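Holo prediction — iron/sulfur cluster.
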Amino acid sequence: MAPSVSSRAGAPGASEAGPRGAGVDGCGRGISYLRIAVTDKCNFRCVYCMPAEGVPPRSHEEMLSAEEIARFVRIAAREGIASVRLTGGEPLVSHRIVPLIRELREIPGIEDISLTTNGALLPRMAGALKDAGLDRVNISLDTLDPVQFGAITRLGRVEQALAGIDAALSHGFHPVKVNCVVVRRLQQDVFGMARLSLERPVHVRFIEYMPIGSDEERGFRAADAGEGPAGELRPEAWDASDTVPSRELRERIDAEAAAAGMGPLEAAAEGGAPAGAGPARYWRFPDAAGTVGFISAMSNHFCASCNRMRLTADGAIRPCLFSDAEYRVFDALRAGDDDAVARIWRDAVSHKPREHEVIKGTERFMSQIGG
Ligand code: SAM
Ligand code: SF4
């Protein structure tokens, strides 16, 4: 069963509470950061992100065009958005990604454009992305073990992600961050991952696994039911117990560093964190070229300082990753009604939840929301 989307209409009258002012939500938080899923398609099928068969296919007409995304960003910039991250799905499988970045670069008020990718297409595209005006890239890499990488991504090879990291560095993207989602039952070699920061000037960030799209009633459990190839990692029973708290991870890395005769991680000095540090906390091995960061979305909520909104590939504004409440802006964008788009945006911003509750799962997969 395809996950359903619960949308709020953004109808007239829905925003009586109203925002406190442009760029400020109903709780007084400044809203300056927009994450956009430019597509929900992907050339990988990571076990914690989407089902083996991919997300249910949608027609071209049901998805926002590059022009509509740019139009949306123009309006959002007038409402206080200064920083945009392009994600998905895999943003580099979208043939319109380079012209889209070029167009976003021209929008007054947009100061920072970044992209999250699995890296596979970066060696081919890094030059064009840089020329178009992309500032920064994050590359996802959960393990250096080739067999485990294949099992996690189902379709990928570890050499692709590593070549993507090297392409990002050689094309002068700065900073280059490496995202590693840690899942308890996968038993990844996190010390090995942290060591990537020794020689390369990269920022390795460990992200706590989030049970997005793995609701017990829907999501993975339903989508992935049935026989899979022998040895396939089957996430249907995953839940919050697969989250490894950042503190535990850091202790594990320190213990392995000590066993290897290395000094422990030290808190990165003031100003030592990479640009766009967001909710991550950064550490560094003595004399390392890069840093090690931890994003504790599960064990340490950062709702009080959350400055972000999301736009899905099918045109819904999502104020909170963990809440299925969405504000459909697709029709207003397609109709070219900028006033209505701005109204729906303000409605969504003013209803951004103060904090999220215990996270049990969501209706949409991460690849559909734009992780
Ligand atoms: N395809 C791109 C990539 O993999 O980097 C961009 C989209 S992906 C959904 C964005 C980020 O979300 C990736 O770093 C991915 O590892 C992370 N992610 C996906 N599912 C997750 C989950 N259930 N818990 C935590 N992070 C997740
Ligand atoms: Fe694709 Fe990224 Fe999801 Fe992996 S995490 S399936 S690469 S969208």
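READOUT: The two ends are 22 Å apart (CA to CA).
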